[in-house]
Amino acid sequence: MTENRLAPISELEVATLSRYIGLDVGGTNIVGGLLNERCEPIRTTRCATEADRGPAHVLNRIETVINEMRAAAGSHRVEAVGIGIPGFVDPEAGLSVFAGNLGWHNVPLGAEMARRTGLPVFIDNDVRMYIYGEAMRGAGEGFGHVLGVTVGTGLAAAVVNEGRLYYGGAQMAGELGHIPLPGIDYACPCGLTGCAERIVSATGIARQAADALQAGESSILSERFSPENGAKPTAADVAAAYDAGDALAIRIFERTGDYLGLALAYAVTLFSPDIVIVGGGVAQAGERLLAPARRRLQQSVYRGYWERLTIRTAFLGEHAGLIGSALMASKQLMKSQQSGGM
Amino acid sequence: MTENRLAPISELEVATLSRYIGLDVGGTNIVGGLLNERCEPIRTTRCATEADRGPAHVLNRIETVINEMRAAAGSHRVEAVGIGIPGFVDPEAGLSVFAGNLGWHNVPLGAEMARRTGLPVFIDNDVRMYIYGEAMRGAGEGFGHVLGVTVGTGLAAAVVNEGRLYYGGAQMAGELGHIPLPGIDYACPCGLTGCAERIVSATGIARQAADALQAGESSILSERFSPENGAKPTAADVAAAYDAGDALAIRIFERTGDYLGLALAYAVTLFSPDIVIVGGGVAQAGERLLAPARRRLQQSVYRGYWERLTIRTAFLGEHAGLIGSALMASKQLMKSQQSGGM
C-alpha cells in the first residue's frame, strides 16, 4: 500500500487550486455552481430556463451561467464543466438526444459549450448526475452499491457500483418509472399503460387526488378543488391535507408509497444495492411516503436483500446535481488526460 | 489504434501454449473441460456429483475431474481453474456461501482446490459463468450489453456489460426468479409468495400441469398422470403434449411464456440490454415458450427498448459454463499478475 494522505496545502497552492463548474438544467430553472478542487460547491446561481424560447436561447443562458461561475472563480483555474440535463443523453457524443420538457431533439450541448467556453464540457442525464452526487458525497457515501431514485415530476432511477454509474445499452438503464405495475390503468405518454410513474410521482399524487374529487369523494380538499371551479390540487396540497388527517390524502400517500415499495422491490432484486436513496421533490413527503414503501418492499423482496439494505432520503438537495456533474466532469477529464485526448 | 491481429503460431509455441480447466458443478453432474489458450473446449468429461454423500466427497470428485483434465493437457501448462457452482458464491473469498441443491454452507471450495492442485482457482455462481460464456463466446458475442436468463429447475439471470459481469451488493444481483409477479399464488421456499420461478421454470411447468390434472382438467396427459396413480408429468412431458396439440399443454406454455416476457420486461427496463439470451433446459422448448414471451415483452416495455433488442436462445449448451468459468479464471489470473498477488 502506498501512502495516500493529503499533504497540507500552502497559501501559494490555494491560489492555484482547481475549480469545477456544475450545472443542472431543468425544465423550469438552470442551477449553476462553482466547486472547489474536492468538488464541494462554494458558490451557486440560478436563472429561469425559458425553454419555450427555444434551444438557441437556452444555450445562451447556459453559457451565461458558465461565464458567471467562471468569473466567480477569479484567479483559480477552471478545469472542466459538467452539465446534467433531462431526458436521453449520449454522454460520449455530448448530445442531448431527446429532452421532452425542454422540447429538445439532438442538441449538441456538450460540443457547443466546449466551443464557446474553450473548456472541457461533460454532459449527462440529470437524474444520473443527481444520484451520482448523492451516491459519492451525500446519503450514499461509504456504500459500495447504490440505487438512487428520484420521485419528482416523474419517477427515475440510477445505479452506482463502486463509484461507477450503470448505463446499459444506449444509456437507457434505470427507467423505473416505466415498469408496468399491476392495478394501474392510467395510460402513459411513453405508449404503455400502467407505468409506475403514473402513480409514483408528484403528478401521480395530484392526478389521484383530482380523480377522487372528480368522482365525488369527500375530503377537506373538496371545497378548494371542486369539479365546478376547475382548480386541481398539487402534491403539496395533498401532503398538507395528509397532515390535517384527511382520509383521502392519507389513502393516496399510502397507495403511492405502496407502489413505490413494489417498484423498488424489482430494482432491489435485480441490482442488489447496499442502499436505496429516495430523492426528488416528493421525497420531502418523508415518512408519509417512506413508511408504506418500506412495508411493501420488505414484503416483496427475499429477506437476504432486506436485511442488508439501508434506505435513506437524499440530503444534498439541489447541490446533488452540481456535485455529481462536477465529479463526473473531473473524472472524465482525468480519463481523457490519461488516454491523451479529449 | 494499435495493430491487434494474432500472429501465426509456430510449432514450438503450440507445444507450450496455455491451457485452462473449467468445471460446472451441478446438483446431478459435474462437467469438466480442458480449454485451449483461447478458452475453447478441446476435451470434456463428466461424472455424477453424488451430493448426498456430503461436501468432502464432492470435493474429492471435483479434484479428480481437475486432475483428469490436467493429465489430458499433457505437456501444456495449465494456467488456472474456473469452477461454476449453484447458489450464493463469494468469488473473492473463493467461498460457496450457500448451495441448496448440494446441501452446502460456507464450503471453501476455491481455497481447498487451490491447495490440493497448486493451481490458481476461481469460483463463481454457475448461472453467471454460463451466461458469461454465452455472452462472450456464444449467442451474445459482439453485443455490448447482455442480459442472460436461464430457465431450468429455477429462473435466474446475469448481466454482462462490455465484458464485465454485474454482481451488485453481496454478489446477489439478477435474482429474476424471485421478483413478485401478479396472479401467482404459489408460495416459494425463499419465503415470498408469487415469485416468477414458481411458474417460469421446468418445475413450474410440471407443477402447473400436475395442479390442472389434479383439478380434473382434460388432457392427453390425464391417462398417464392421474391423481390415482400418483405419477406426475415433467416439463418434457408437457412439451410433448404441446406438440400433440393438447389444449392444456398449450395453455401452460402460453402462460409460462407470458410470465417470462413480463419478468423480462422488468429486467430490460432496468438493465437496458442490447440482447436477451434465453438459456437453460427449458429454452429447448424454443418457440413454444419464446413466442408468448416475445409478445408479452413487446407489450410491456417502452418501444425504445424493444426496437433495439435482439432475443436469442443460448447455443453453447453445457460448454457455456466451462467456457465462462475458464474465461473468468484467465481474466482473474491476469488481474492478479498485474497487481502482483493471488
From TrEMBL, chains A, B:
Family: Belongs to the ROK (NagC/XylR) family.
Protein name, entry field: Glucokinase
